[in-house]
Amino acid sequence: MRLTRRGLLAATASLAAFVPLAGAAGRGPAIHVVKDPNCGCCTAWIDVLRRDGSSVTTEHSLGTLLMQYKLDNGIPQEMTSCHTGRIEGYMIEGHVPTADIRRLLSERPDAVGLAVPGMPYGSPGMGPEDAREAYEVFLIRKDGSTEVFSSYEAA
Q1: Half-sphere exposure (CA, 13 Å, Cβ side) for 108?
Q2: Residue 41's Cα: distance from chain center in Å?
Q3: Is there a contact between 91 and 85 (Cβ–Cβ < 8 Å)?
Q4: Is it the case that residue 25 has pLDDT exceeding 70?
Q5: Nearest 5 degrees, angle CA 41-CA 46-CA 48?
Q6: What CA–CA distance (Å, rounded) separates 4 from 54?
Q7: Residue 150 pLDDT
């Protein structure tokens, strides 16, 4: 098979058209999630992150090791949930919506990160948003104090 200039141009054009699609799934920032290997809601939250464009890696941890990871990284016990992410130096605890993660990365506060304590129904990965219960996303300050970062009303 002989490669011609016309064939090379056609192949290059085809590749150029494909490349933006190939990168679309990972166009957002990379996040590393530590989670229980048996948790389905954690997997559902990770799917939400990926659909939003984040590149996600996971690490499995259980019980006291997972809790110790959270505490060692500045997440107060009353702010814990089932999984913990790390993104661009911030910790993301629980079912935090992607819009809040993007806002955190845009504003860059001097903080540990964000948390949605517990597992509120209707938060990302926890059931349909149109049936959600009210919940708040908290900003965790480096001194361990927290403040409401955003609020979601019941649907």
Answers
A1: 3
A2: 13
A3: yes
A4: no
A5: 95
A6: 39
A7: 98
